[in-house]
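Section: Multi-chain targets

For targets with more than one molecule, the full set of components is provided together so that the structure can be written out for the assembly as a whole rather than chain by chain. Components appear in the order listed by the source. The example entry contains two components.
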Amino acid sequence: MNSLFTPLSWDDTGYILTGVWNTITISVVAIVVGTLLGMIVGFARAESNKAVNVLFGSVLDILRSVPLIIQLILFSTFVGAIGHPMNPFLAGSIVLSLYTMAFMSEVFRGGFESVSKSMQTAARSLGMTYWQTVYHIRFPIGLRAVLPSWMGVALSVIKDSALVSVIGYMELLRTSEQLISRTQQPLEILIGVGIFYFIISYPLSHYGRYLERKMAI
Amino acid sequence: MEYEFHWNIVLQKMPELLNGAFVTLHVSVLAMLLGVVIAVLLAIAKMNNSKPFCYVATVWVEIARNTPALFQIYMAYFGLGAFGIHLSPYVAVLSALVFINAGYLTETFRGGFQSIPSTQYSASKSLGMTSIQTYRYVILPQMLRRIYHPMTNQFVWSILMSSLGILVGMSELSGTTQRLQSLSFRTLEFFIVAAVMYFIITKLVLFGASLLSRRLFKGEI
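Its structure, encoded as tokens over all components, is:
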């Protein structure tokens, strides 16, 4: 019976590091893609009229009102059912990026709408074209205002990336879960995992709050 | 598309799904109520200068905010086993959600409390109000207005996050869906229905919250 469970050893380091690496990879992909898409969608929403906005908004609303875990399972089963199975990383990245996009677009929309109309009018009266106004005025000012909220969303994406384990992606929590079932030492492993997330998230969340205070004054 | 949808089996199992949805609501309401109570205590501890309580509150808040929900659930479900505490899936998910809700709401409450300028206390005092009257008629109504929206968001978040019960075998909406689909292999159909049900639940909660806020605050929020 003893051979069934083997205790945690240094040989497991590589396995855990794979999990760490995979968690970082998928979070970075989702944050980068989600931010870019969110910026575009957020800008489009700040620009478009009410009818288009309601339509846009309700689609994004679905992404925010259905649990991420259900979205992941649905998407990976769906692509399987139509005959194009995807590897967990790709499927996970797509779902997580769209999910991030839904939140980011709200953040960016708020940022772009915070740039006052009179400033844009002033820029246009100085002879700037529409796109020059966007590039020199609205983006720099709008984007600076959203930095704290952007960080909040990015942090929650890092934490939510743990859910991609449900479709079989070997991120940190899944590797740890498998180590737990082999070693039967849940506490040591889980505390290690918790410390990893904490080390990434804690400094960033404090920096975000610091920025928020700095901007409020 | 070669996939053929079979909805009959889902319709047959609808009572079980609704039952799962009820458990989802149930666990999130309970997690919210307990979370609010603990958050009030933690917020008071954090604002007091009594060191040990303040430390406990700070550690609680930081751990809850900076680690994934799934981690908390694994900790409650697998981790506590090391101390000989074996929680059922329901209790494990509930305690994880309470832990996180309390952590987030503490900051919400503290922010709401501190957003009220101290001059209002002096003003109430100068009008001859006792401190209970001050809180009851001046401070709390304003505070409630400021924390109402974040609290609604937290509740919706709890509903969505209770879906993690699927990973520890809890029989709420997604856990039930998982079990039913594994019996019938109609994965897509069952999860589509589950997604729709989550959507409806969240929308109903948000709608209810906005109705309530209109009654409570008479539109001025």
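Chain A has one domain: 10-216.
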